[in-house]
Amino acid sequence: MDSDLQIQLDRTAKLPLSEQIRMSISTAIESGLLAPGTRLPSWQDLAAHLGVARGTVQAAYERLSDSQMIETFGAKGTRVAPRPRAAAQPEVPRPGAFMKTFQEMNAGPGIFQLGIPALEGLPEKFFARARSSNLLKIGSFASPINPDPRGEFELRREIAGYLSIARNLHCFPEQVFITSGYRSGLGLALRVLGLDGKKVWMEEPGFHLTRKGLELARLRIVPVPVDAEGLNVGYGIENAADAALAVVTPGQQAPLGSTLSLRRRLQLLEWAVSSDAWIIEDDYLGELQLEGRAAPALASLDEGKRVIHIGSFSKTISPGLRLGFVVAPTELAAMFSEVAATLAPAPSPVAQLATAQFMRDGHYIRRIRRLKRLYSAQRDALCEQLRMRDAEWVKAGLAVLLRLPDGAPDVQIVREAITFGLAPSPLSAWFATPSLAFPGLLLGVATAPEAHLATSCSRLFEIIDRYC
């Protein structure tokens, strides 16, 4: 017997001896211990060596032959069959520049992080109870009927009612489509519009994920600057009047926080109608306006014609909920239904029904009021810390923009801050045009509890001082 082939049999095991023999030889072949072409002992010799019946070894050899691990050549004996060369291990794909930036900007959770609500006060117990109740209601996913791809009617009805009160946007549940969040809603809208190769206005600076989504949809992006009145519509008309789409954050511009003025809203709508263009309204922060009542939705002025309104529950409840919605113009509602049914159906009915109950019972509106009070207090406390350090800053929606000296490496500052549990966003990363970018740090107020502000600001300025 080949000296490399060592077979240990356990006669007390439930596994048959023939299977133990087969597994031992198979393991030796796969590990390379028995190379291709190695001659194996005859089944008679191996049976004698192991003290088992010849039929036991014969059965093991037959299974190995069936699996093409050994070959039998009559008088020339039984040999290990040729094996395919081990394939080179594929190189583990590394994230590209976009994904690296995405991961850096979403590192956390950390102090000053954008895009997520305050950790305190999350309605976890309510949703746990509601989800359990709704699991029973729909038979623990065992319903024989496919869910409505547009979303559960109960949630679409609650959203339509809420928008009419909070955003002055009057729509029917049939115009509301449930998505897995803003990005899912953007993808759904771009599929419906099918504007491959067309020009699109994009705010400068603007949300990098929106910009990437437009690129993937093969749209030609025209950066349009933002000022104190929001998107500079006149600039867009002068430089790309033939654009087929504009994507805007009119309520609170992301990231600078300005509100699109009424004059420019009307100008934008007039352009869309005259050019047969579409507008995607990213209702970035919804009703979370910290000073006064939130501005009405742009779609409220549109009478359901040219504006596609996208909202989400990420910043009001939790990004982990993975729920958002699209309000489609009446002209596009049928096409949205078709695309949702075939390519982008709504997410789990359980989360939808729990959210519908949360809204129906009045918890959602109360939560928004609590968050606004909390965020106002946290923003005031943060601004006071910045005043004490003679820093240059401006309020920017649910963030405070901390300006840095020209040439300051805000991206490197953020990378170092992350190692200390701080997660501000580098302003320069929001620009598509490097020549227009200027350095700064966006300090989210939702994730800046007052108890940690002094320590967090001290650490952040220590890092800034090393670079500036």
Strand and helix layout:
Blueprint: H1 17-30, E1 39-40, H2 43-50, H3 54-66, E2 70-72, E3 78-80, H4 97-105, H5 124-137, H6 153-166, E4 176-179, H7 182-193, E5 199-204, H8 208-216, E6 220-227, E7 230-231, H9 233-240, E8 245-248, H10 262-275, E9 278-282, E10 307-312, E11 324-327, H11 333-342, H12 349-360, H13 363-388, E12 393-396, E13 399-403, H14 410-418, E14 425-426, E15 440-444, H15 450-467
Parallel strand pairs: 5-6, 5-8, 8-9, 9-10
Antiparallel strand pairs: 1-3, 2-3, 4-11, 6-7, 10-11, 12-13, 13-15, 14-15
Helix pairs in contact: 1-3, 2-3, 5-12, 6-12, 7-8, 7-11, 13-15
Verbal overview:
This protein is an alpha/beta fold and 468 residues long. It has three domains: 17-80, Arc Repressor Mutant, subunit A; 121-361, Type I PLP-dependent aspartate aminotransferase-like (Major domain) (Aspartate Aminotransferase, domain 2, 3-Layer(aba) Sandwich); 366-467, Aspartate Aminotransferase, domain 1 (Alpha-Beta Complex), CATH 3.90.1150. Helices cover 41% and strands 13% of the residues. The chain has 15 helices and 15 strands. It has helices at residues 17-30, 43-50, 54-66, 97-105, 124-137, 153-166, 182-193, 208-216, 233-240, 262-275, 333-342, 349-360, 363-388, 410-418, 450-467; strands spanning 39-40, 70-72, 78-80, 176-179, 199-204, 220-227, 230-231, 245-248, 278-282, 307-312, 324-327, 393-396, 399-403, 425-426, 440-444. Strands 4-11-10-9-8-5-6-7 form an eight-stranded mixed beta sheet, with helices on both faces. Strand 6 (220-227) and strand 7 form a beta hairpin. Helix 1 packs across helix 3 (54-66), helix 5 crosses helix 12 and helix 7 (182-193) crosses helix 11. It is elongated, with a radius of gyration of 31 Å. The termini are far apart. The model has no long low-confidence stretch (mean pLDDT 89).
